[in-house]
Design brief:
By secondary structure, the protein is an alpha+beta fold. It has helices at 61-75, 79-95, and strands at residues 7-10, 28-36, 47-54. The protein is elongated, with a radius of gyration of 15 Å. The structure holds zinc ion. Residues 6, 20, 22-23, 25, 55, 57, 63 line the site of zinc ion.
Length: 103
């Protein structure tokens, strides 16, 4: 499962608004931006007009930790560990304070 880390690009005009996969906040949008057409083309000249949605909390430590916990929950083969990861992600999202520093 691929959780988007507070950034989504869409074909212009197809979405009025987007919620962040991580924290459920309505994301900021810049419309009709000349942006890479895919992650693989970041360093090439393959660009196209897109509406770029970005979570205003994307760079915050709590957001990055919650994202990593959600990713770990999605990728572990253990449903028990997934529950633990998601419980801690929920705690981080509720408090907006990371539960661990410098990881
Ligand atoms: Zn977010």
């Amino acid at each position: 499962m691929n959780i988007k880390n507070g950034y989504v690009a869409r074909i212009p005009g197809t979405k009025k608004r987007e919620k962040c996969d991580v924290c459920n906040t309505i994301m900021d949008v810049e419309r009709n931006i000349d942006a890479p057409s895919s992650w693989g083309s970041i360093f090439s000249k393959n660009r196209m007009k897109q509406d770029c949605f970005t979570c205003p909390h994307r760079a915050d430590k709590w957001h990055r930790q919650a994202y990593t916990l959600q990713q770990n929950a999605a990728n572990t083969p253990s449903p028990h560990l997934a529950k633990i990861f998601l419980r801690e992600a929920s705690e981080v999202l509720d408090s907006r304070i990371p539960t661990k520093e410098n990881w």
